[in-house]
Amino acid sequence: MAPTAPDVTVTVIVYNDAERLPRAVESLRRQTLRNIEIIISDDHSTDNTPEVARALAAQDERIVYNRLPQNSGGCSRPRNSAIEIAKAPYLMFLDSDDELPENALELLLAELRADDTVDFAMGGVERVRTDTGSVSAWHPHLFTKRQTVRGIENHPGVLFEHLSTNKMYRREFIDRHSLRFPEGIHYEDQLFSAQAYCLARAFTIVPDPCYRWYISPYEAVGALSISNQRHRIENVRDRINVARLIDDFLVESGHEAIKADKDFKFLKHDLRMYTGDLPYRSHEWIKQFADEVGPYLETLAPEAFHRLPRDQRVVIQLVRDGRYEEAQLASRGMGREVAPREVTEDGAGHVYWGSQVPADPASARELEISDLDLRTRPFKNALLRHEITRIVPEAGSRITLDVRTYDPGNQLPMAPVVATVHLAPAAKRLSASFRLDPVRPGLFEGTVTIDLSAVPLPPHGFAGVRHPVLAITQHRQHNTGLLLAPLEFPTLSKRIAYHRGMAEHTVTVEPEGHGAGRIQVRWERAGLLARAEPHLPTLARVAGPGLRKVSGLVRGLTK
């Protein structure tokens, strides 16, 4: 009797990832759908991946090891090679450093079998940070309900969801359109997914998570994934290249009607990734970036720019105008409701970002921020900018911060203002108040000293990162904003014993290192608590009765 054909083929692509490959494969072996084929498609690894892959195949007859004769340098060829040998009528793809939730295949297959007109089904994506363990959803607004979309024009917003790995495809659909991953380019998923969306008769979205994507933001340089190489100008060039290929495909396939939506996605997602990093780039790099991206921006639909949040439009325009230092300042406030250091008003009362009224009408249109109502908005929503200009370690566990507050809307009086820094690693917080003195209208300065040993930690300690905030009260309204750190200052670390010496921690004060660049404080358990770390769930359960009981348990666990 001939063996039963598998229901689904899942291809795991791998290159020099022997350590994580077993985890990915094990997530497939645990699937509630049992009748599957697992192809390990190896892009000619040079480490011990072949030995690991062959050992995995020996353990499970459902596993096929497919090794490419030479390295292709990308994800496309290993996937395409596996498509050619796959035996199932439904296909799915997995990267060797990720996983599938246990019921992912069963969920997606059920959707495809329920409706013959659906060419692929897609599920939600869990993003897991390997450095913190935190879990977030990838574009959760796209996965709020189950729905079948018949034609991309009916839901062009899904272009933001450009992964190929959270989708199960009909093999017949893939072959009908000779759909393959483009070889020789980076960001191949974006082109493949755009083509799939446009060519599909229908696709179904399910709200359940069907892919677990592990994000390593601080990988070693030699191991950086393509998406983590944004510091390379070549990476910018690759993104623009694939965007142009998508534009060409939209024209060729008769889907020009969604170009403005695709352009908006490029600005809101792809370009945003680079503009968010501008504070950490040199002016020379930003100039190269502007030279690469500028010509492509000229081809985008004007309405795509109009749909962007104002803060992103300001950064883009400052880059296009060659105002690189101001672009860096503006970048630190994107999505954070952080004010500019200063604004300029023209004779007609229009307010512009920065120190000058733009002479060019196009620049003036993009840099005008009159709609922010800096002067008249309620104080609780006032846009202020709090920058730390200097950090000084003091005796013991104290640190002193020199703070400068910018108030471009002149909502603060020209008089001393009481401000408070709050730091809350747990339920209770440390508050340190100080005086901000006026330097001139719209600018205040002050100094605050924080005693890190006075931060209230729970009895079982705390491991994690917190970002201090600065609060000001005026007219019985509280305004709370983030504290921007100097982008570069020596990391300050102190060993602090909380709770009468029973809860030792290493406490580090440092810049955030990405995004807005907030100041951050990081706690790591030390001493007895570090040794008791594996038992902390038990400690947390008994923390309620009091410190004495917890302290006794710590001593018992660490003997």
UniProtKB/TrEMBL annotation:
SUPFAM superfamilies: Nucleotide-diphospho-sugar transferases. InterPro entries: Glyco_trans_2-like (IPR001173), Nucleotide-diphossugar_trans (IPR029044). Residues 10-175 form the Glycosyltransferase 2-like domain. It comes from the Bacteria. Pfam families: Glycos_transf_2 (PF00535). PANTHER family: GLYCOSYLTRANSFERASE, UDP-GLCNAC:BETAGAL BETA-1,3-N-ACETYLGLUCOSAMINYLTRANSFERASE-LIKE PROTEIN 1. This is Glycosyltransferase family 2 protein. It comes from Streptantibioticus rubrisoli.
